[in-house]
């Protein structure tokens, strides 16, 4: 048993799939950008290193001995680690294994290819790749779900045996080639393929021309042969060629460098003051393998999204999704779901991000594009609560209470302290009332997007208004304003009764009130999670039992959960597995387990952990996982990741996985850090998890604490 995860500890199970299975291929990052492997042994897609974008272009599709590999119907086995993706397959007597990495400090991807001949006779091997080039560097922010791409002009670099693609409009360049001289390199036409419709835009994509590069080798019986393929991008041709040359000079060394980078990053994440961040997560010592796996998954689920691009206006940032959608966007909602991890791991970045968001109008967008600082998208109704939670967590864990008195100018021209902003967020709901006592939070785009009945006056965010009022009261009391604190608490207490009017008696779930006053029952997990967070102590015991019964009966599965009950009529509305009947979003199982603890059923949360941990064996948690049994699984355990294509639209990883680390720290270890600067407390619930578990080196306001079943004590 060890407490610091290794690369192998976090590796996925081998997952075997065939072309076009409902399988989400793994992604990679080196903190500068991302790439995703594809349904192939060599191909990669979504190679994007902001400000250099290639969209979702696929390149490197394999042909073997003159036959397109995908057409062979051969199953491919994929294993992910933080530093690499290993793909393997057997084609007749040939065994092919590839290792794909994003080498450190380089805007490039490398694939190391190894072929072994298990036959009794020599094999004349022809290995060809279909290449596409679509790199660009637009001047405007990346405000769309898919990164930008553009048609490239193509030419052959004869000295390198490489294909060079250049965007005429922006000068961005992509270089692709083997690490040894190819047997053939045939560039495609430097123009889009004619779609026959005069334009490809109706398909929502560019149609890029394909080039072809081929290598040949004679493999004697039992012999192995290797070759490397590199795709490098740059803002200029010189920059792209330099990156290509550096990696192509020694592809196996690039693989080793990626391993060293991620080994160090994982170790540093648990040591304060060392490595890339000033903060660190506490070390979990436990014999409970499931608790440990979920904790590590929560830490990795934030670390994985760090972006240290020199092109970011805000400096270091954290993406929300990867590797296909919304690159360069940090969503307020998702960031808040991993708030504890951000506050402990990288408080300086968190403060800078919060100051930027406070300076914007958070009622007009859902996040920030970090290259430009520009707002992205429409308003998410969760923002007032999310910002309150983020500010509170930053102050609690950092101990920087003076920051609350920092004045931050806003887009309306005024400047107010952080504390005043928090007070405004706690009261903002009053401006959203539409003839009723509760706030109307708008339509589907403002809430869960794919649940048509979850609109207008919902229990979740109205319950969170109670929570926000109480947090504002804490702040007022800490500042010596007892009168304001009392008034805010009274408002919160009165609002509890209004929220309770949405409860569907005896059901365990809630209704959404429509503008005409109609109450539409919605059996959704978000109400369960958030009402338990905000109002657990306000609810009668019978109601708490009904809520727990509803969750365990209608939503929980063995290894994951569904966000919406299959008995809810809105199950027919959408197949997106993040918020609908067939699965759940990254953070919902963590928050649901935490809700069970708050509702007095830590035993049920503890019993669920082994199943949830089995779903962590696919790499970082996805934007959404299917409940088990909905689609064929590609490994022996866990809830499958939702795929990226229509109608599912699930990215391979999502940063709100940090909620699992919070489940351990504040859920099972019961850590409570007061908003008023008081000493941290702990009410552990470890009896059914691991009575001997310890959380060591939890840093609060610069002091280190250890937590165990006996409570919390300063560790020096």
Defining traits:
6hp_glycosidase-like_sf, 16 helices, 6-hairpin_glycosidase_sf, nine-stranded antiparallel sheet, 716 residues, alpha+beta, five-stranded antiparallel sheet, globular, single chain
Low-confidence regions: 194-205
Give the overall silhouette: globular
Q: Strand order across the biggest sheet? A: 1-8-9-10-11-18-15-14-13
How much of the sequence is in beta strands? 15-25%
Query: How many β-strand stretches?
Result: 37
Largest sheet: 9 strands, antiparallel
Helix content: 25-40%
Structural class by helix and strand composition: alpha+beta
The tally of helices reads 16
Ends apart, CA distance between termini: 25 Å
| Rg (C-alpha, Å) | 26 Å
The residue-averaged pLDDT reads 94
Give the topology.
Elements lengths: L6 H4 L4 E3 L9 E3 L4 E4 L6 E5 L9 E2 L1 E4 L2 E2 L7 E6 L2 E8 L2 E8 L6 E10 L5 E9 L21 E5 L4 E5 L6 E6 L5 E3 L24 E9 L4 E11 L2 H12 L2 H18 L14 E3 L3 H15 L2 E2 L9 E2 L2 E2 L6 E3 H6 L1 H7 L1 H13 L7 E3 L4 E3 L6 H16 L8 E3 L5 E3 H10 L31 H20 L3 H19 L9 E4 L5 E4 L2 H11 L5 H15 L27 E3 L2 H11 L3 H13 L9 E3 L26 E2 L4 H10 L2 E2 L8 E2 L11 E7 L2 E6 L2 E4 L2
Antiparallel strand pairs: 1-8, 2-3, 3-4, 4-5, 6-7, 6-12, 8-9, 9-10, 10-11, 11-18, 12-17, 13-14, 14-15, 15-18, 16-17, 19-35, 20-21, 22-32, 23-24, 24-25, 26-27, 28-29, 30-31, 33-34, 35-36, 36-37
Helix pairs in contact: 4-15, 4-16, 6-7, 6-8, 7-8, 8-9, 8-10, 9-10, 10-11, 10-12, 12-14, 14-15, 14-16
